[in-house]
Recover the amino acids of this structure.
């Protein structure tokens, strides 16, 4: 069969291609000499002509580590006389610790004489661990690079309090007035210019601040050392010369702790919460515990007064409590109810349901309670419906009410005062009026409004604005406190309050105001007999 024409032309070309390909393959019989340096020695070796660096290393049995390098690169074809260098690369890690110096902060405090300095918190250096990556080539260090850093211990700031001149002349003070400034507890006694530090740890959170009925002890909370504890409960002696401070071994006190009136030994009652990762940061237990301590320093194990409760939609937020003036009754308030604690039966006696406020946020509103001097009435800000509003839980209306603790009957004393009225009854002093409260400047938005300090008669009627003066900024809705009754008819009856971070007094009889501090760091106060 004759050969097709296209094959007669193709066959010589195919033969040429095959011959060329055969000529490109390494001739294993031909050898070339190269110089190789590896593992600390240099030598001459024979390898197949046309070998790549990779093939030559395999032929010579030289293995490369994961970081090793070669010169020239592995893909280069070697010719006679080439120099081949194998560089052994090793990796190592090392750590070292570095000292982190502390910084020094200065706080101004007019509670100290001008120019006087006091160490509030000693500074402490911290430490940091730094990790480095080291590279060695043929045993020689060629690179040291930082690849990690971890704080082992954070530095603690040094805090020094420097005294500045008091802004006002000294006033006579009845009882004992305690306040928290820059996380420290201070006491004013005798006169406004006579002040001394009670606790200087710098970590008081201001959630709890109470004076015992006998005036000898201060109850307070200190912020937790980490995210696992909100705070811890402590007492400190208020007696001059006695610097005793006692931990009551209780923690996570969010809303309530107070001294038990008429107790044979000093006793504190408190309610707890559990730390929560979500807002508001706690889950309230709505419980009550009591703990006794001795003036010599012994603290007894706590006992349960009220078991934890979950019978309310807002139990996550918690409850507040308030002792009657005679110490015989304990009132409670929660976002949806007000009533009395049945201490004997370990239960709650609800006197009035409260229209729970729908905050649509990470907090809940609950009334602040105050007793009348004779213990027959409770005062609080009551959430009331707004006519025509579809969602009454969003009503902006809050009235100041008086509730009879026997019958639960309500009397409205003032309309539309705002949700944070913080009512407080005064001692029984003729002509002073006996109910102070905070009046929202913008009642329709009382959750964010500033407030005015107002005074009215216990049975209601027109209210007098005590502070601030017309045109001045309003108050933050913080608790305030009445002074004890004056010892004589000519004495002054004061209300202590916080304005722009400073402690102020207003005379409820004359309306005269006096600023007591000027550092802007006051966060809580309490006035005791």
């Amino acid at each position: 069969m004759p050969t097709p024409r296209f094959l007669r032309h193709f066959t010589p070309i195919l033969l040429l291609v095959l011959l060329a390909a055969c000529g490109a393959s390494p001739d294993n019989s031909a050898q070339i000499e190269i110089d190789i340096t590896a593992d600390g020695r240099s030598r001459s070796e024979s390898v197949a002509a046309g070998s790549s660096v990779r093939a030559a290393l395999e032929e010579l049995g030289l293995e490369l580590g994961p970081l090793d390098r070669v010169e020239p690169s592995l893909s280069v074809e070697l010719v006679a006389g080439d120099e081949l260098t194998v560089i052994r690369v090793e990796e190592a890690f090392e750590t070292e610790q570095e000292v982190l110096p502390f910084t020094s902060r200065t706080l101004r405090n007019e509670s100290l004489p001008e120019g006087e300095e006091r160490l509030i918190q000693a500074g402490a250096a911290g430490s940091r661990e730094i990790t480095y990556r080291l590279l060695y080539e043929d045993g020689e260090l060629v690179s040291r690079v930082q690849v990690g850093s971890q704080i082992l211990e954070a530095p603690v700031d040094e805090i020094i309090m420097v005294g500045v001149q008091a802004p006002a002349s000294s006033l006579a003070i009845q009882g004992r007035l305690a306040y928290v400034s820059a996380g420290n507890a201070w006491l004013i006694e005798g006169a406004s210019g006579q002040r001394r530090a009670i606790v200087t740890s710098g970590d008081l959170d201001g959630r709890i601040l109470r004076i015992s009925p006998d005036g000898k002890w201060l109850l307070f909370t200190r912020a937790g050392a980490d995210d696992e504890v909100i705070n811890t409960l402590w007492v400190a002696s208020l007696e001059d010369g006695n610097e005793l401070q006692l931990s009551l071994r209780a923690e996570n006190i969010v809303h309530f702790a107070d001294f038990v009136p008429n107790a044979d030994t000093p006793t504190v009652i408190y309610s707890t919460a559990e730390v929560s990762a979500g807002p508001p940061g706690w889950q309230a237990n709505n419980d009550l515990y009591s703990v006794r301590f001795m003036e010599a320093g012994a603290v007894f194990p706590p006992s349960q007064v009220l078991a934890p409760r979950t019978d309310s939609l807002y139990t996550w937020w918690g409850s507040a409590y308030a002792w009657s003036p005679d110490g015989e009754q304990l009132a409670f308030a929660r976002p949806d109810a007000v009533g009395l604690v049945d201490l004997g039966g370990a239960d709650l006696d609800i006197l009035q349901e409260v229209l729970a406020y729908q905050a649509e946020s990470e907090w809940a509103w609950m009334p602040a309670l105050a007793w009348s001097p004779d213990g027959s009435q409770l005062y609080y800000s009551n959430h009331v419906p707004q006519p025509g509003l579809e969602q009454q839980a969003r009503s902006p209306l809050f009235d100041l009410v008086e509730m009879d603790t026997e019958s639960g009957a309500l009397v409205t004393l003032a309309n539309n005062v705002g949700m944070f009225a913080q009512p407080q009854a005064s001692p029984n002093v003729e002509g002073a009026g006996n109910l102070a409260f905070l009046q929202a400047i913008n009642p329709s938005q009382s959750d964010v409004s500033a407030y005015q300090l107002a005074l009215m008669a216990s049975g209601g009627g027109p209210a007098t604005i005590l502070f601030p003066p017309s045109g001045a900024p309003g108050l933050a809705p913080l608790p305030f406190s009445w002074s004890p009754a004056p010892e004589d008819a000519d004495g002054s009856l004061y209300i202590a309050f916080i304005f722009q971070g400073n402690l102020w007094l207003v005379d409820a009889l004359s309306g005269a105001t006096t600023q007591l501090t000027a550092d802007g760091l006051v966060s809580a106060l309490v006035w005791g007999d």
In short: The chain is about 5% helix and 45% strand. The longest strand covers residues 184-199. Residues 1-26 have pLDDT under 50 and may be disordered. Helices lie at 5-24, 53-60.
